[in-house]
Amino acid sequence: MTEKAFNIKYEEYSSLDELNAEDRELAQAAIEGMRGSYAPYSHFNVGAAVRMTNGQIVRGANQENAAFPSGLCAERTAMFAASAKYPDKEMVSLALVGGIYGRITDEPATPCGACRQVMAQYQTRSGKPMSVIMVGAKKVWKFEKIDDILPLIFDSI
Ligand code: THU
Fold it and tell me: What's the number of domains the chain is made of?
């Protein structure tokens, strides 16, 4: 038996001001994206923004439905819209933010497993690391690649 471990690195910033200009712009787009949230059931508004290789930013927000599973998270809304709009471009990075009634959580919002799986596939498709910026009111986290938030990615088929 050999014991193995994952070494996951990420950066923590104390505010958006500490981010580089591109990441800050993407984080701000995610915050603006929250305005598109439709969350009459959870009242948890989530915004996301994706940066493409052509520099364009596509926003998304969670969309809920009375038939609960028919709703969709902000991150997948943003990624699917981005891929549909720019089918020949790749995703460079994604930012997300959330909070009850739009009040941004102190700790960064973290993406659900299904959204991580979708991120993983767009990263595989691109062949380059896709970074993720998780925004909170008191701190911001940046992960350089999806492998760091979804080890042992499923991409076998
Ligand atoms: N939600 C997201 O938009 N992204 C996530 O990564 C987790 C959860 C949404 C789904 C639902 O509308 C609300 O937040 C509460 O779960």
Answer: 1
CATH code: domain of residue 103: 3.40.140.10
Residue 93, exposed/middle/buried by CB under 10 A (0-12, 13-18, 19+)? Answer: buried
Active site residue 144: no
Is the pTM of the predicted complex or chain greater than 0.85?
Answer: yes
Distance 88 CA to ligand 1 centre (A): 28
Q: Could you give the CA distance from residue 69 to residue 146 in angstroms, rounded to a whole number? A: 24
* Ligand 1 mean position, distance from CA 28 (Å): 19
**Per-10-residue mean pLDDT for the chain, 157 residues long?**
95 97 98 98 98 97 98 98 97 98 97 97 96 98 97 83
